[in-house]
């Protein structure tokens, strides 16, 4: 549902964009479900990546190209009820990551062709990259995988997920966005301080919540948030023994994995697997109940079925070289 507090804080033009975008998405979903007849998703088969849970310590090995991967579908953000990996993940060593012989992508964005219809976001991407150290091409891949697109491929700054609170170019949930605002050192924290949106405890005040959430629809602020969230997540992954910065592709994929799953689930995914019950919830949210059950039956369990689907999606969509010079 659309956050009413955020709507009130928007300009009439912004409000119209968000309402129209949400209505469009809901209508498309309704028509799609009606066409399918059972509320599911197309009958697609995920390829077996040839991995076992005992061999989950190398990110790029896990993210190897998948054959016969299913076609892309919009991602839905599913909040995690227990996002503290400190107690949920066993302490294990991770093998050093390597590009596995793949040609590494440049960290520099192409002057225009790399971004195509999204060239207007180039300055914001480059500035966020310079500030945080996250390659601009990595940031571009995250936006491209998260934001809804117009027919010409341009990113919709007013993207909305009608099934959750996810919004904007980074599809940030309300709680995640507020967390960034309350985290010292982030661009959003600086903005919140400057506008007087934080109370004496450094928390977002109730009266400022709507205005803060509305900033997810501002492209520059959203891109800054994506960069800060990526830097924060990559730092936490490294503290847990997962090397993430040996190549631009590794950085982009590790950052996206944490952006999409949340830090806790990302660590669990990489260090032993998300528990079956949670994997079941995540997979159903992404591909629909009917398709999820088919995938689980084929894979043998929800954890492996979700792993196969997400790795195939990342392999197709998180390609920083597509945005490089």
Q: What proportion of the residues form beta strands (DSSP E)?
A: under 5%
Distance between the termini: 39 Å
- Find the count of extended strands (DSSP E, 2+ residues): 0
CATH topology call: Lysozyme
Percent of residues in helices comes to 40-55%
| Tally of helical runs | 15
Biggest sheet: strands, sense, closure? none
The unreliable regions are 24-106
Domain count, please report it.
Answer: 1
CATH architecture: Orthogonal Bundle
What is the SS-derived class?
A: mainly alpha
Name of the CATH first level: Mainly Alpha
Characterize the overall form. Answer: globular
Rg, rounded, reads 19 Å
How would you describe the overall organization of this protein?
This protein is an all-alpha fold and 325 residues long. It has a single domain, classed as Lysozyme (Orthogonal Bundle), CATH 1.10.530.10. The chain contains 15 helices and no strands. The protein has helices at 4-9, 12-36, 59-62, 85-88, 122-132, 136-146, 174-181, 187-194, 209-214, 219-239, 248-261, 263-270, 276-287, 289-299, 302-317. Helix 5 packs across helix 6 (136-146), helix 11 (248-261) packs across helix 12 and helix 13 (276-287) packs across helix 14 (289-299). The N and C termini lie far apart (39 Å).
Output the keywords:
single chain; 325 residues; mainly alpha; Lysozyme; 15 helices; Peptidoglycan-binding protein; Lysozyme-like_dom_sf
What topology does this entry show?
Layout: H1 4-9, H2 12-36, H3 59-62, H4 85-88, H5 122-132, H6 136-146, H7 174-181, H8 187-194, H9 209-214, H10 219-239, H11 248-261, H12 263-270, H13 276-287, H14 289-299, H15 302-317
Helix pairs in contact: 5-6, 5-10, 6-11, 10-11, 11-12, 13-14, 13-15, 14-15
